[in-house]
Design a protein that fits this description.
By secondary structure, this protein is α/β, with parallel strands linked by helices. It contains ten helices and 14 strands. The strands form four sheets. It has a seven-stranded parallel sheet with strand order 3-2-1-4-5-6-11, with helices on both faces. It has a three-stranded mixed sheet with strand order 12-9-14. A two-stranded parallel ribbon has the order 7-10. Helix 4 runs parallel beside helix 5 and helix 6 crosses helix 10. The longest helix has 21 residues. The radius of gyration is 19 Å and the shape is globular.
Length: 316
């Protein structure tokens, strides 16, 4: 099973979930944000870029790949506003390259790791899979474009697929695996505390109860398990919906996250409030009911679990 982006934070957890399920993962990653140390020694690893169609095809053929979980992407919504060309190349063109390689190698099953950012600011309490898509950043646009490319290939009968949409992924399933993103909330807060700095809240004037952004926060291990179940369903030729939201059903604000971090770490702090980041909608909370029905999706970790596991992995 090929995992693109398998040396990254989420990808490395997916790799371990595949191993636990008895499925042999093969990792492709260019290490632009991933870490070779995140790939288990027993796992076949190829350091190539998804834009290299020939190399991808060669890996699929030589490794006898039967299906793909596609996580490789440039995922920073805020930064994508200032780097739109790079974002389109990595996310849209990268997906085209992957699909072309799959077609050449006759690999016809795909789980695509998408994002709730495709919805933009949804003016409803709970986002469903049928909620209209209105991305508000190049990142969201490119992910939606990738979904459409996948659907077009699926319409030919050459591809069985499903797209998994989610937003903030946090926590750790193993102490050696951590989120090293310079833009995600949890590592920003934890690194600040480890360096004796005050964490930053980007905007406290949003139209939300406490003025800070409200999001779904899901534990990375729960997310990884859902990817594996989706792959297993495809391998069993079971019908799946084209899109599933891996949502919590409940929103948590940035300020509530800060309070949870203070409680878990025992470190008292007063966050510094900075200007909003471009591309950040005020609120996205998604329902996970459809995924619960078909993918055994559930929130198995509490907010405290998420914070504690992230803190332990990062500080070690």
């Amino acid at each position: 099973m090929l995992v693109t982006g398998g040396a990254g934070y989420i990808g490395s957890h997916v790799v371990r979930a595949l191993q636990a399920a008895g499925l042999a993962p093969v990792v492709v990653d260019n290490l632009s944000t991933g870490h070779a140390s995140f790939v288990p020694a027993a796992v076949s690893f190829h350091q190539i870029d998804v834009l290299d169609t020939d190399a991808l095809t060669s890996v699929m053929e030589s490794e006898s790949v039967a299906a793909v979980i596609h996580l490789a992407a440039y995922k920073y919504a805020g930064v994508s506003v200032t780097r739109p060309i790079h974002t389109w190349q990595q996310n849209a063109q990268g997906t085209i390259s992957l699909l072309a390689a799959m077609e050449r190698a006759s690999v016809g099953k795909l789980v695509f790791s998408s994002t709730a950012a495709v919805y933009g600011t949804a003016d409803i309490p709970l986002v469903l899979e049928t909620t209209p898509t209105h991305p508000e950043s190049p990142y969201g646009e490119t992910k939606l474009a990738a979904e459409r490319m996948i659907a077009d290939l699926g319409a030919t009968g050459a591809l069985a697929y499903t797209n998994l949409r989610y937003f903030n992924v946090v926590g750790s399933g193993a102490r050696e695996l951590y989120d090293s993103s310079p833009h995600n909330l949890f590592p920003l807060v934890i690194d600040a505390l480890l360096e004796d700095r005050q964490p930053v809240i980007f905007g406290d004037d949003y139209p939300t109860p406490d003025g800070t952004c409200v999001r779904d926060y899901v534990h990375v291990s729960d997310l990884a398990d859902a990817h594996v179940v989706a792959l297993e369903r495809l391998l069993e030729d079971q019908p799946l919906e084209p899109v599933y939201n891996l949502g919590s059903g409940d929103g948590v604000s940035v300020r509530e996250i800060m309070d949870a971090v203070a409680a878990v770490t025992g470190i008292g702090f007063a966050p510094v409030v900075a200007e909003r980041r471009p591309g950040d909608p005020p609120r996205i909370v998604a329902s996970g009911e459809l995924a619960a029905r078909d993918l055994d999706w559930k929130m198995r970790h509490s907010l405290e679990d998420m914070v504690r596991s992230a803190w332990q992995a990062r500080k070690d």
